[in-house]
Structure formats: C-alpha cells, structure tokens
What we know:
By secondary structure, this protein is an alpha/beta fold. The protein has two domains: 3-148 and 183-206, NAD(P)-binding Rossmann-like Domain (Rossmann fold), CATH 3.40.50; 150-180 and 211-278, Alpha-Beta Complex (UDP-galactose 4-epimerase, domain 1), CATH 3.90.25. Helix content is 41%, strand content 13%. It contains ten helices and ten strands. It has a six-stranded parallel sheet with strand order 2-1-3-4-5-9, sandwiched between helices. β1, α2 and β2 (26-27) form a beta-alpha-beta unit. α7 (159-168) runs parallel beside α9 and α9 crosses α10 (263-278). The relative contact order is 0.15.
Amino acid sequence: MDVSDLDRFLITGAGGMVGAAIPFGLKYSRQDLDITDVEAVAQMCSSAQPTGILHLAALDIRQSHNDPLAAYAINVLGTYNMAHAARTWGIPFVFISSGAVFSGLQTESFNERSVPSPLNIYGQTKYVAELLVENMMDRSLIVRTGWLFGGHSAHHRKFVDVTIHRAIRSEPVLLNDGQFGSPTYIEDFVGALKSLMLADAQGIVHIVNTGRALASDVAREIIDELSSSSRLEISPVGEAAGVGPQRSPSEVLTSLSVQLRPWQEAVRDYVIAAREASD
C-alpha cells in the first residue's frame, strides 16, 4: 500500500482519542456518520470512494456497561455494517479492538494466540465484532491495544493526564490498584499502526508499549519524573470494589510481531511534553 492510499482511507470514530491522533484519511465522527445505519454507510462509501476502512468507532467500557443495547448496536452491528461495506467495495478493513477481550490472573499476559474470555459488555461486544470481521473479510487487520494515553480524551480525562495535573501541583493522586495493564503512548501506537497498514498486514496484531503496570506504577513514574511531592491514595471504591463494569485482574498484552519501547520511557516522554506545554 502506498502512503497516498492512506489519505483515502475512510476513518470512523474520528472524534475519539485514536481518531484525533491519526494523521491521515477521510475522518468521520459520530455526527458525520451513523455506523448503525447501513444505508448511510453505503451512501458515504459511494460518495467518498475510499481505498480502505479504518474502523475506530465504538462505545467505551463505561458507556457499554451503562447501555448494553447501545453497545451491541454500535460495537457489533456498526462493525458489521462497516465490514460489509469494505467487502462490497473490495477494499481492506482495519478494526481496532481491545485487551478487554481477555481475562486472567494478575500474573498472566496475552498474545495474539491467546484465547479471549471477556468479562464485561465492552469486551464481549468487541470480541463478537472480531469474530464477525474474521469470518466476513478476506483482507482484514484486527489490532488490539489497551491503556492508551497521551491524546485527546473524548469522554473522560485519562488517568495519566489527571495524575500529571495533580503531580504538577503536588496534590494527592487517588487511584484503584487492582488491575495490571499495558500503558501505551498514542503516538507509538499510531506510528506502529501506520506501518502495519502500509505493509498490508493482515490477521490479529497487538500494539502496546512493552511491560506490565499497575496504576500505582504509572503514577510513581509520573511523580518521579516531575520530582513531585504528591502522595498516592489507593482507594477500594469504584470499579475495583464492584461498582461499574467487571474488570479482569490482568489486561496485559504482548505481541509476537510488534515490539514497542518500554512504557516507562513513553510515559516519561509524554510527561516532559505535558510539563513544557503547561509552562
């Protein structure tokens, strides 16, 4: 695939964190395109004449928990509509999924060959969408990631940004610490995704920064980088205490084919950039 082809990729979910960071393509937000409307999707493709589809649009984990029917409509049926359009037009289809399709003990990690077992509505709908894409498409790329930071937050401020904000002011950092994940810098993710697309990669690929972390590990990295006097306040309230969607003790991803730098280095780079922007 040529770089010029990326400029004609139709990108859904352009108003979200990943969509805002993508430096190419024909971007459509929820307001621009209702992916649950099959006719609207067909008309958009007919008008745009895309060279491929990068499907980002989804209801996130909190929204999915609060409205399971909407999660099914957007995460499953919406993905089906976009994949069907790609199949009809004979163009590549790239689908962004999540580490939430897995569940396991804190000591576990999951690569592309691991068997999904999602615990919550979000993970379940993303996994069903993956199965649809795999069975519908001859040319598809499914990319799983997790714990993204460093970009525009569409629905709520990300933990990393909240922690930086509080650490700069030496304020306490409140967190839940019951889950391991793979902190991933949005710039690293987008760079790797672009490379895969240019290489016409197919199948399932994980893109995450290397290493596992608790929320407290990430917070300590930020506090140390800022030489802050902030203290950590680990709380049992919220999702860790059973309020909100059930989460796996581990959503740590590893990859058999894509190796990014350690998450600690990525966090430090983002903290430096955020500090300079605040000065």
